[in-house]
Design a protein that fits this description.
Radius of gyration: 21 Å
Shape: globular
Distance between the termini: 53 Å
Strand content: 15-25%
Number of strands: 7
Order of helices and strands: HHEHHEHEHEHEEHHE
Helix content: 40-55%
Largest sheet: 7 strands, mixed
Strand order of the largest sheet: 3-2-1-4-5-7-6
Length: 259
């Protein structure tokens, strides 16, 4: 074989290898529904039947960015909804130049609560970006869950987080909530958001303006004008399932002990 033919053959093998790796990356890394659209919407409707909902997030604004539409749907359905915010997000941006960013962010979260209407809001006051390093974090989650007695947990997906945005507090919070469920709360359903393997969709078209208003309360994070960017993200979700705007989840029913 001539040197030229060998080079062509090696180039062909390289191209084939890169094509295979690209396909693998698409399958593994990109967000995609794991069920047909109609089934995802049906799972979303099943989620909304729950009447005691405990959502656990890492920072103020997490709920408003990802799940506030769904929380509003729960409120409208008559559910009791509790939002737990692990940290005050004091290491985040400070666009308003607040003297005490932690307190400012808490007040922004309270303002968002008034818009969406969830009944209970609890701040755990854990250090920002170090939530899961705190020895009392997991015990606090256990204590809250045992007291509130949710039938549905909502938190970040620690196993299949949506890329490219990753944050140690996000995945850490999701992991801690998931571990409590596996160890003690097997009778509780769980819905993971910020997941690249969603199987449930909640149509938030009719409540999106409330979600946008709630998101805009987080002015210290520069989200006062973030409605268009957030709407575009939920429009992409909606196109996946055939509705204008949607929030996506990886939903695990109560009878499924592991996920």
């Amino acid at each position: 074989m001539s040197a030229a033919r060998a080079a062509v053959r090696q180039l062909g093998m390289l191209i084939a290898f890169l094509a295979v790796m690209g396909l693998v990356a698409w399958v593994v890394l990109l967000t995609r529904l794991t069920v047909p659209p109609r089934q995802a919407l049906a799972a979303g409707r099943e989620m909304l039947k729950h009447r005691r909902v405990l959502a656990v997030v890492a920072h103020p604004d997490d709920a408003e960015w990802w799940i506030a539409g769904t929380l509003r749907r729960f409120v409208e359905e008559g559910a009791e909804v509790m939002l737990v915010v692990a940290s005050n997000g004091e290491k985040g941006p400070n666009w308003t130049r607040a003297r005490n960013l932690a307190e400012a962010r808490k007040e922004e979260q309270r303002a968002a609560q008034r818009v969406i209407g969830y009944q209970r809001l609890l701040f755990l006051e854990m250090p920002d970006r170090e939530v899961v390093k705190q020895s009392d974090f997991a015990p606090r989650i256990r204590e809250i869950a045992l007291e509130f007695k949710p039938t549905l947990l909502i938190t970040f997906d620690p196993r299949h987080p949506e890329l490219p945005y990753l944050h140690p507090d996000h995945e850490g919070v999701g992991r801690t909530v998931r571990e409590w469920r596996v160890q003690e709360g097997g009778g509780v359903a769980i819905a993971f958001f910020h997941s690249r393997r969603p199987n449930a969709a909640v149509d938030i078209t009719d409540v999106y303006e409330m979600k946008r208003e709630a998101l805009q309360q987080h002015k210290s994070q520069g989200l006062g004008g973030a409605g268009s960017l957030n709407r575009a993200a939920h429009a992409r979700n909606g196109r996946r399932v055939g509705v204008p705007l949607a929030e996506l989840f990886r939903f695990v029913e109560a009878r499924q002990r592991t996920d």
